[in-house]
Amino acid sequence: MREMNLRRNKVFFQPKREDFDKYIVPCFSPAPFILVKGRGSRLWDQENKEYIDFASGIAVTSLGHSNVKLINALNTQLNKLWHVSNIYTNEPVLKLAKKLVELTFADKVFFCNSGAEANEAALKLARKYANEYYDKTKNEIIAFENSFHGRTLFTVTVGGQSKYSDNFGPLPPAITHLPYNDLKTFEQHISSKTCAVIVELIIGEGGVIPIDPFFLEQVRKICTNYDITLIFDEIQTGMGRTGYLYAYQEYNIVPDILTSAKGLGGGFPIGAMLTKEKWAQIFQPGTHGTTFGGNLLAATVAETVLSQLDYEMLSGVLQRHDIIMNELIKLNKKYNIFQIIRGKGLLIGAQLSSIYYGKAKKLTQLASEEGLLILIAGSNVVRFTPALNIPLDDIYEGFQYFEQAIIRFKDK
């Protein structure tokens, strides 16, 4: 029977959307179309319908689809060497590590395959650091309500949205969630038992909520005073997304550990944990590891992405931010659909007015029917994360489609 099935599989197979329901574990509920080709900030589906992309794979394809420089770099490495184990090192990962260290606060880098893995490494490192320098009672991790830090059991517990951790218990202990931007509550809760604080500089999945600069400044001071490891989760805000290489650089407030992924690989899976020397030395051989982290192909692409994030590119992010905000404000004056519009750089959220609460997903579905791909950040916020280099004409055309979607949305 197995041999007959193998022979049958050799017959030409044209995947359809219903095949997802037939073959894939239903963790996701994808759109009714299948995307097959991309170029810049444009995508095409199986029916050759064209879309303008304001989503970028959730802030991942930061330099657009089929970026020529990334393709050329990847092809060069494909013809040389794909993978070696971490028993050895390799040139691409060393080049990438050097560049990240030179451009940030960090002294050392650990590479992995995703944002969740980067956060997992950071949280493990923070706990081990406290164990090494203090004692086992200093183990509490503080995170913030509505945060999101990944899907491993550890990171989903640290994330401040219980809907992602419900029914997976027993969950890792000694994790506390506090209100975001609430300094008084934070100050009251901190104790000698706190070993780490992990914070997003913009809450992403939980609604696109920027951090209060004064709150961030005080968190840094308190962590220093109490010997607490401060972790910045810059999975979504990093790699030019806010108009800075990493968002912390706008505030000139430095963490002890920073996590990066998404835009780091421009679409190729890679994650990184950046840290200071004192913390880095806690992870000695055998304490933590990965099979694919530091992969030659991923490192090659990431180093090429990083090389393109120059002053001109980052300035262009701020220019595009202003255009998108202005377009959203104009639409809101016309249709009164949003309660608040917020964000930085090209991570922007538009929170629906109360009469439309819970309907953000519906608006994104209508937008895709019109030819525009956008995201949600919770059930009430529409999220915009286009490529950092999206052509200005694509922005204006995309908002024409978005206006048509809003008109249909309001009529329903």
TrEMBL record:
GO cellular component, one term: cytoplasm
Modification N6-(pyridoxal phosphate)lysine occurs at: 262
Residues reported to bind N(2)-acetyl-L-ornithine: 151, 290
Cofactor requirements of the protein: pyridoxal 5'-phosphate
Gene3D superfamilies with a match to the protein in the record: Aspartate Aminotransferase, domain 1, Type I PLP-dependent aspartate aminotransferase-like (Major domain)
GO process terms (BP): L-arginine biosynthetic process; lysine biosynthetic process via diaminopimelate
EC number: 2.6.1.11, 2.6.1.17
UniProt main location, coarse: cytoplasm
Binding site for pyridoxal 5'-phosphate: 115-116, 148, 233-236, 291
InterPro entries referenced in this protein's UniProt entry, alphabetically: Ac/SucOrn_transaminase_bac (IPR017652), AcOrn/SuccOrn_fam (IPR004636), Aminotrans_3 (IPR005814), Aminotrans_3_PPA_site (IPR049704), Class-III_PLP-dep_AT (IPR050103), PyrdxlP-dep_Trfase (IPR015424), PyrdxlP-dep_Trfase_major (IPR015421), PyrdxlP-dep_Trfase_small (IPR015422)
GO MF terms held by the record: identical protein binding; N2-acetyl-L-ornithine:2-oxoglutarate 5-aminotransferase activity; pyridoxal phosphate binding; succinyldiaminopimelate transaminase activity
Comment on bound cofactor: Binds 1 pyridoxal phosphate per subunit.
Cell compartments where the protein resides: Cytoplasm
Alphabetized UniProt keyword annotations: Amino-acid biosynthesis, Aminotransferase, Arginine biosynthesis, Cytoplasm, Lysine biosynthesis, Plasmid, Pyridoxal phosphate, Transferase
Catalytic activity from the UniProt record: N(2)-acetyl-L-ornithine + 2-oxoglutarate = N-acetyl-L-glutamate 5-semialdehyde + L-glutamate; N-succinyl-(2S,6S)-2,6-diaminopimelate + 2-oxoglutarate = (S)-2-succinylamino-6-oxoheptanedioate + L-glutamate
Known pathway: Amino-acid biosynthesis; L-lysine biosynthesis via DAP pathway; LL-2,6-diaminopimelate from (S)-tetrahydrodipicolinate (succinylase route): step 2/3; Amino-acid biosynthesis; L-arginine biosynthesis; N(2)-acetyl-L-ornithine from L-glutamate: step 4/4
One Pfam family matching this protein: Aminotran_3
Family: Belongs to the class-III pyridoxal-phosphate-dependent aminotransferase family. ArgD subfamily.
Oligomer status and interactors: Homodimer.
Chain's role: Involved in both the arginine and lysine biosynthetic pathways.
Name by which UniProt lists this protein: Acetylornithine/succinyldiaminopimelate aminotransferase
Source organism (scientific name): Candidatus Ishikawaella capsulata Mpkobe
